[in-house]
Design brief:
By secondary structure, this protein is of the alpha/beta class. The protein has helices spanning 36-47, 54-64, 67-77, 84-95, 113-125, 140-149, 188-200, 205-211, 224-235; strands at 24-29, 50-53, 103-107, 132-137, 150-153, 159-161, 180-181, 215-219. Strands 2-3-1-4-8 form a 5-stranded parallel β-sheet, sandwiched between helices. It has a 3-stranded antiparallel β-sheet with strand order 6-5-7. Bound molecules: adenosine monophosphate. Adenosine monophosphate is lined by residues 32, 54-55, 58, 75-76, 80-82, 87, 108-111, 115, 185, 194.
Length: 239
């Protein structure tokens, strides 16, 4: 019933865990710095679904030095989007893996209208569909502050923040001893480009998914717990 209003197939009373016969397929939308990654980690735990982050897939490919990584790196370092053909291909491949059968959460994909259309087509060909799209909304000035303050461990991916938690020893991850650095895509120039891309391109997905009756817009400029509670309430159809 694409195009119609549809609610999530998860009634309010159930515990969301894989293996209970319910499949939940979700897209998490939000510009860089909205806290998507943090919310995704909590949601996959609550829902028991497979987390698919295209950013993580690209970063791993870069770290492994694969041909995909070499191609993706030049776009990522410039704060550009990796071309649709490349990105759509890796997501289709990922969705076909067995761990997606019990539900998935896409984080950072789709980011363009062609990606969203390709996702719909790919899911339809697998006899699947999306249940909900959660869009986390944060004012742009707040995002700029958050993005340029972010530091990350090259080893385990742990996130630090120059305005908040930083490693005890400068540049050395508390968790794994890896190097803590500023991602090339978190510099002011690259962050500006990423937010411009989001405003110009990815924000088109809001009307796209609203028209499908799937969109849940969440105010992300609040404490993590409050945002999480709002998302779960929206997914449970309580609001
Ligand atoms: P993220 O961690 O989601 O912010 O992604 C980091 C970078 O990976 C982005 O700035 C893009 O260069 C690339 N990337 C991730 N997801 C996509 C996507 N859906 N389409 C194009 N490029 C992407």
């Amino acid at each position: 019933m694409r195009g119609g209003v549809r609610s999530v197939r998860v009634p309010p009373s159930v515990t969301w865990k894989q293996g209970e016969g319910r499949v939940v397929n979700i897209v998490l939308l939000g510009a860089a710095g909205t806290g998507k990654g943090t919310q995704a980690a909590r949601l996959i735990d609550a829902l028991g679904v497979t987390h698919i982050s295209t950013g993580d897939i690209f970063r791993k490919a870069v770290a492994d030095g694969t041909p995909l990584g070499l191609e993706a790196k030049r776009y990522m370092d410039a704060g550009d989007l990796v071309p649709d053909e490349v990105t759509i291909g890796i997501v289709k491949e990922r969705l076909a893996q067995p761990d997606c059968a019990g539900g998935f959460m896409l984080d950072g994909f789709p980011r363009t209208l062609p990606q969203a259309e390709a996702l719909d087509a790919a899911l339809a060909s697998m006899d699947k569909h999306l249940d909900a799209v959660v869009a986390i909304d944060v004012p742009r000035d707040v995002l700029m502050g958050r993005l340029t303050a972010r530091r990350q461990c090259r080893g385990c991916g742990k996130i630090y923040n120059v305005m908040g938690e930083m490693p005890t020893t400068d540049g050395v991850c508390d968790a794994c001893g890896g190097e803590v650095y500023q991602r090339a895509d978190d510099t002011v120039q690259a962050a500006t480009k990423r937010l411009d891309d989001y405003d110009a391109v990815t924000s088109q997905l809001v009307p796209y998914y609203t028209a499908q009756g799937l969109l849940h817009k969440i105010d992300g400029d609040r404490p993590v717990d409050v945002v999480f509670a709002d998302i779960t309430a929206a997914l449970r159809g309580a609001e």
